[in-house]
Predict the structure.
Amino acid sequence: MVAYVLADTKITNPEAYEEYKTLARPLVEKHGGKYLARGGDMHVDDSDLWQPSRLVLIEFPDIESARAFTDSDEYAPIKARRRANAESTLVIFDGI
């Protein structure tokens, strides 16, 4: 069953965050991930629980592949770069 990584990101250092994106993409792809949405315009219809900033949606073959990406030793220093240059919430969930 496919799985998705949904990230909501408030970028605090745009220049450094561009480097993060360049480093993260090959690892996402190595783990079978495919970007479905990456930032861009959005319309928020309801915001009772949260107000999104910048959404990224990545599809993986399954939840294990998504977790293998986010938990990998290779991604750890790249994740640290994301955390140093943005505030974010990242969720992994099953698709249908």
Q: What stands out?
A: The mean pLDDT is 97. The longest strand covers residues 3-11. Strands lie at 3-11, 34-38, 55-60, 86-94.
